[in-house]
Amino acid sequence: MNNAKKLLLSALIISSAAASANEPLAPAQEEMLVTGGKDSIQTLSGSAHLLDKTTLEQFDFSDLNKVLGQLPGVYIRSEDGYGLRPNIGLRGVTSERSQKITLMEDGVLIKPAPYTAPAAYYIPNIARMNAVEVVKGPATIKQGPNNVGGAVNLVTPPIPTEAEGFMDATVGTDKYQQYQIFYGDTVGDFGYWVDALHYSSDGFKEIDTGDTGFERNDVNAKLQWSPDQLWGYEQRFIVKLGYADETSDETYLGQTSVDFDTDPINRYAASQLDVFASEHQQIHFDHLITISESFTLNTKVYWNAFERSWNKLDGFIDGIAIRSIVSQEDNNAFPELLAILKGEVDSNPNPAETLDVTNNDREYGSSGIQLKGDYTFQTGGWAHNLEAGFRYHHDYIERNHLTRGYLMTDGIMVNDDINYGFKTLNEAETDAVAVFIHDTVSWKDWTFNAGLRYEDIESEAEDFLTGTKTDKSQSFTAPGAGVFWQASEKLGFLAGINKGFSPAGATAGNDAEPEEAINYEYGLRYQDGGNRIELIGFFSDYDNLLGRCRASDSGCNVGEEFNGGGVEVAGAEIFAELMLPFTVGQIQFPINVNYTHTKSAFQSSFSSSFSQWDNVAKGDELPYLPEHVGRVQFGAVAVDWEAFIAISYQSEMRDEAGRGSFDDALTTDSLTTVDLSASWQVHPQWLVQGSVDNVLDDEAIVSWRPFGARPNKPRSARLRVTYSF
After folding, report:
1. DSSP 80
2. Average pLDDT score over residue span 129-142
3. Of the residues 42, 337, 583, 657, which has the fewest C-beta atoms closer than 10 A?
4. CA–CA separation, 230 and 691 (whole Å)
């Protein structure tokens, strides 16, 4: 915390040392956006989308996976059915624990340790957000450290200009409940809001000897001071404070396909002790000063702390890996061990039949300071918007994974009282300096974008079990450029190219090389009033693809990384927001469509101890990358009510790299789901909303990872009441 206080003091000094005239500030919300807003997106030379509060309210999803499913170029691998730890990929990068995307809250890195250990075991609750942005292509030059696929920015509400608030209550299937209260006001130069959120469920899975639900709490506050002419300049200061916790009975353990077909929501007895517990704290400071009519400086200082323990089944003490037992097309490979996992057979007191339950205890922290200057000027008939940014960032992780042994006895796991010690005991930290410069130039019907990003990354790690220390230095320069041509009042064309980069982690080892790719995109945008259509093609040419070992991967150490060599990913995205050209009375009929087609291929043959690749042949496709993803939404909107139906589709995905027919490969199922939602503004202050997810109750294997077949969430219903004041 002392470092955070020093950073806050430094920010005040740096941001206040400025000179010149005074102009009104841009709205506070704009400084939290990375796209510049919907108007700016329309002329970007890269792909970007913004889901505003109105869109987020249409279904009131609490699952970020469902929210991002409304946009093209996004790939989701479901794990728990509630989106507690989403697996999100963009334009072909792996979706595994969202590790290859840049994830932000109000433009600030929000993963627990985005450089040292980038797996996103914490993601902010979407229910408290005011908007969601997704940025891909050349527009990612301003974001990092992962800009091969793109960035996701979650935007909190601005300070209200007058007193307002709401109380929100939702109940639903499996004892789902969500309660939220929000209140804010501005009095003179001071503004604030406070937000408290609780949601929980008993879970949709079933186990005879344990629980399967979760509970989350989230309390946040934002304070704002906008003094009139402080030291001669228009300024704005914001402090945001947050605390969140979670307890969830989540497991890595799935089922065999035969057991899945019999009862997809059943959980094996060996997962009865699995529980995830975490706490997250944050302090974010934001300062904006208008130095002149053409120059503003924004400073952000941040501190995040995250602690988590995940007590879960990790296998047998000394035996066959769980994936080898459950990821089979039949139950005949290891019937005795499978019966132990189910609780049908007692363990013999030997290491091969003793269940390994490891408490994966970890502590993370991140802090930093970032500055961004915006300068607008004219050179002849050319209008420039020049942006330059700097960020110093520090993060760390401490892993303390303690193993305990249990014997399955009459369906109950009994501790064997043997001291197995630590499976993993290490720590690592990273210091990173990033700078970028980006110029947007407008001339007549043309908009040109060019930028450059540079990062210098210094990491060190220590393994206390082996006594080894490692240091790792990485640096990269990533240029990008694009052009947008407004060919007519309604039609525009875009093209862009940028170098993408994703750094190796601190514990990756010296043989692991950073992930690098050259990204191309091209397409068109059409807008006619409220109708908008976007068609974009993309191509990523990887010089090296990086695979990262997690606790769920067998045959490797947590944090170890693997080089995959050259890979090509190509695809096309369609996005449309349309309003049918007729009404029925005052009822309008909006339609939203998105579709992504993706193909991938390794460019060399090799063997890897990374379980998702194994023996790769040139031309093999990437695992967990669907060829087809799409969604179409139809709506009816009146003055005081609205209703929507959404149909989503995702094609099957390979569990390991491969090609050709899916018949002989381990794959997920293709899945089509239908969601419904209807809202009624009963009174200016009262809103009633009913929603049903997966109306047709379709069942599918949505993942074979971490250990075995995992189901999608079955049909569920919610009833929501909101009182605004």
Report:
1. S
2. 90
3. 583
4. 49
- How far apart CA 623 and CA 704 sit, in angstroms, is 11
Pull the structure tokens for residue 506: 């601190």
pLDDT at 328: 65
| pLDDT at residue 557 greater than cutoff 90 | no
β-pairing, 412-415 vs 422-443, is unpaired
State pLDDT tens for residues 18-66.
333 333 334 456 667 777 777 778 888 788 999 999 999 999 999 999 9
Structure tokens at 600: 């991938």
Strand partners, 389: 372, 436
Q: Is 664 exposed, middle or buried (0-12, 13-18, 19+ CB in 10 A)?
A: exposed
Interior CA angle at 679 toward 675 and 681, to 5°?
175
What is the distance between the alpha carbons of residues 716 and 202, in angstroms, rounded to a whole number?
A: 13
Q: What single letter denotes the amino acid at residue 561? A: E
How many CA within 13 A on the CB side of residue 27?
Answer: 10
- From CA 292, how far away is CA 368, in angstroms rounded? 27
Return the sign of the alpha-carbon dihedral for residues 222, 227, 228, 229: negative
The DSSP call for residue 347 is P
Cβ(285)–Cβ(301) below 8 Å: yes
Phi and psi dihedrals of 54, rounded to 5?
A: -60, -45
Residue 244 to residue 34: CA distance in whole angstroms: 24
Q: Are β-strands 671-683 and 686-693 bridged in parallel, bridged antiparallel, or unpaired?
A: antiparallel
pTM across the whole model: 0.93
Task: Write down the residue that tokens 């696929």 correspond to.
Answer: 149
- pLDDT of 562-613, one tens digit each? 999 999 999 999 999 999 999 999 999 999 999 999 999 999 999 998 888 9
As a residue count, the chain comes to 725
Alpha-carbon torsion, ordered 71, 72, 75, 79, to 10 deg: 20
Q: Where are the beta strands (DSSP E) in 136-213?
A: 151-155, 164-172, 176-187, 190-201
Reading the block at residue 686, the tokens are 């009262």
| Other beta carbons less than 10 A from residue 306's beta carbon | 22
Per-position b or e across 505-535, b if 16+ CB within 10 A of its CB: bbbbeeebbbbbbebbbbbebeeeeebbbbe
Report the C-alpha gap between 521 and 344 in whole angstroms: 54
**What's the pLDDT at 704?**
93
Radius of gyration of the chain (CA): 25
Q: Are 226 and 25 a contacting pair, CB within 8 Å?
A: yes
Separation of alpha carbons 55 and 577, rounded Å: 12
Using CA atoms, how far apart are residues 92 and 625, in angstroms rounded to an integer?
7
Question: Is pLDDT of 550 > 80?
Answer: no
- Rounded-to-integer distance, Cα 163 and Cα 447, Å: 41
Cα–Cα distances in angstroms (integers) from residue 391 to residues 298, 381, 388, 490, in the given order: 12, 33, 11, 38
Two tokens, residue 360: 């994966």
**How many C-beta neighbours within 10 Å does residue 646 have?**
22
